[in-house]
């Protein structure tokens, strides 16, 4: 979906990086992370900044980029990116079908905005449907081409149901 709207692969990587999580980055680190030339990353950073989608801050000699949360389309772009990654659908299915899930967290690389090909999930709850979990892993790989690694932790009594995505 997103790749049919946005034709630049570098721009897609930048949108995924900045709008899937509250990440920031500077030119050379982004070029290295994406395995792209600094020039191609610079061009797309400039386009996104000129469009008001990214903001910049000076940190010493570095120009640090991050998503402009004040942009009128920030929420919409974030939602499109989440749908592109399939994370919203994955988390909804987990909470709906796994049984008494109290909380679900996306952790690891995806939580930090890095597409390593593996989605790590921490589920908190008891008596969860492990057969459905195996089915979900297979379907997620088939649909998103991403492995799913799930850790299950016993539930905390008195805690409410919640979904969170966090990173470092």
UniProtKB/TrEMBL annotation:
CDD domains: HTH_ARSR. Gene3D superfamilies: Winged helix-like DNA-binding domain superfamily/Winged helix DNA-binding domain. InterPro entries: ArsR-like_HTH, WH-like_DNA-bd_sf, WH_DNA-bd_sf. One of its GO terms (biological process) is regulation of DNA-templated transcription. This is PaaX-like protein.
């Amino acid at each position: 979906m997103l790749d049919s709207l946005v034709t630049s692969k570098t721009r897609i990587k930048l949108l995924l990086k900045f709008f899937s999580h509250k990440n920031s980055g500077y030119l050379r680190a982004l070029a290295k992370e994406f395995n792209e030339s600094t020039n191609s990353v610079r061009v797309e950073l400039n386009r996104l900044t000129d469009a008001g989608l990214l903001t910049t801050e000076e940190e010493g000699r570095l120009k640090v980029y991050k998503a402009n949360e004040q942009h009128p389309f920030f929420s919409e772009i974030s939602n499109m990116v989440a749908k592109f990654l399939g994370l919203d659908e994955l988390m909804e299915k987990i909470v709906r079908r796994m049984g008494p899930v109290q909380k679900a967290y996306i952790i690891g690389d995806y939580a930090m905005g890095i597409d390593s090909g593996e989605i790590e999930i921490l589920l908190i709850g008891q008596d969860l449907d492990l057969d459905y979990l195996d089915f979900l892993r297979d379907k997620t790989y088939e649909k998103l081409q991403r492995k799913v690694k799930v850790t299950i932790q016993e539930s905390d009594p008195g805690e409410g149901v919640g979904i969170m995505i966090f990173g470092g």
